[in-house]
Amino acid sequence: MRRTSGLVLLALAVFFAALSPLLRWYAFPRLAKVPANQYQDMVLEAKNATLLDYGTMRARTVPKVTIVQTLRGNVEASERIERSAGRDVVVWDTLSYVQGPDGRMVSRIPERYIFDAHTQEPVHATGEMVDGDPVRREGIEFKWPFLTEKRNYEYFDAQTRTSAPIHYKGTRSFRGLEVYFFEQTVPWTEVAFPKAMPVKGITPESVAATGTTRWYTTVRRFWVEPLTGAPVYGEEIHKEELRGGTLLGDRDKVTAFAGHVKMREDYIEHTVDLVESNRTLVLLLTSRLPWGFLTLGALLLALALWLEARGRRPSGPAPDTASTTEPVSA
Predict the structure, then answer these.
(1) What is the spatial distance between Cα 68 and Cα 56, in angstroms, rounded to a whole number?
(2) What does the pLDDT look like over 274-308, one tens digit per residue?
(3) Is 149 helix (H, G, I), strand (E, B) or coil?
(4) Burial of 199: CB neighbours in 10 Å, binned 0-12, 13-18, 19+
(5) Which residue of 48, 182, 222, 270 has the fewest CB atoms within a 10 Å radius of its CB?
């Protein structure tokens, strides 16, 4: 009976010991993925910002500029691309809507971002675009990979339609979470005018005809939770200028927008709560279950060896086979 129990325990020990690396290195890369139907919105604000008044073509200080970013997973498009790509694909239709303190639109830029659900690497397919212009992304955007590393990544900038390194600047603590801090500086670059202009009747083509160009620079910062690869906080020091042309009269340039853009407090709290819940799931698959199974395997192996050793131990003292001769009396 002890021998049978020992063999069963030995088999279980081997099973859990083998399951530990299998769960971490085989199951996790296949199970961890961004859901295709994800939806989220976020509100950012730039207080005491500089904004161009298109009526007077003069920059003025306003109490607040609001940026609403909406992200919607397009399941139908992802399933269509998956059939040709042969892998799990996520399609995000996003919209960055900027409005002034009076609620009027400043800019409206849609994007379609297509990427691998597991690695977050871009997948190039028909429909990949920024503001209606076809693009071919390199690097990440919006989200870092699961198990983010302490290194620089290529990050796609929607304004310039190009990718550049976003630099790892160290590990920090944010709202009780250990996060990696990343920063990217985009130098002054000439960029396209948005398709949707803030003044009715004005189009990018009509502005371009005046010889006026649009320039942009930003310092982009993210605090990224490394297990999930999700930013828990982000901000930008953002500047835009109009330069040259007859639209500005005798001026060389005018500020179109300048401000320190930050996430609104209620959205920070919501994002941290969401990331904490997802972090627990990732931690379960990458650390707690693998180490737990390995520890359980070691305990079962020790118990099996103990039972085997106990089964081989003699059950009682060895009998004395030496014969004794009793004296015979005459």
Answers:
(1) 26
(2) 999 999 889 998 988 889 988 988 898 888 888 77
(3) coil
(4) exposed
(5) 48
Contact 152, 183 (CB under 8 A): no
pLDDT single digits (tens) 13-59 = 888 888 888 888 888 888 899 999 999 999 999 999 999 988 888 99
Q: How large a percentage of the chain has pLDDT more than 90? A: 65
Closest CA to 146 of 307, 252, 282, 245: 282
Give the Cβ contact number of residue 280 at 10 Å: 12
Name the burial class of residue 106, with classes exposed (0-12), middle (13-18) and buried (19+) by CB atoms within 10 angstroms of its CB.
buried
pLDDT above 70 (res 9) = yes
Q: Are 108 and 98 in contact (CB under 8 A)?
A: yes
What's the CA angle centered on 282, arms 163 and 267, to 5 degrees? 65
H/E run at residue 284: none
Contacts of 58 (CB under 8 A, 6+ apart): 52, 254
- Unique residue bearing structure tokens 């103990």: 306
Q: Is 283 helix (H, G, I), strand (E, B) or coil?
A: helix
Q: Which long-range contacts (CB under 8 A, 24 or more apart) does 134-143 make?
A: 135/161, 137/113, 137/163, 138/163, 139/163, 140/115, 141/113, 142/71, 142/92, 142/94, 142/113, 142/231, 143/34, 143/229, 143/230, 143/231
> Looking at residue 208, what is its pLDDT?
86
Q: 189-218, pLDDT tens digit by residue?
A: 999 999 998 888 888 888 889 999 999 999
Q: What is the pLDDT of residue 199?
A: 85
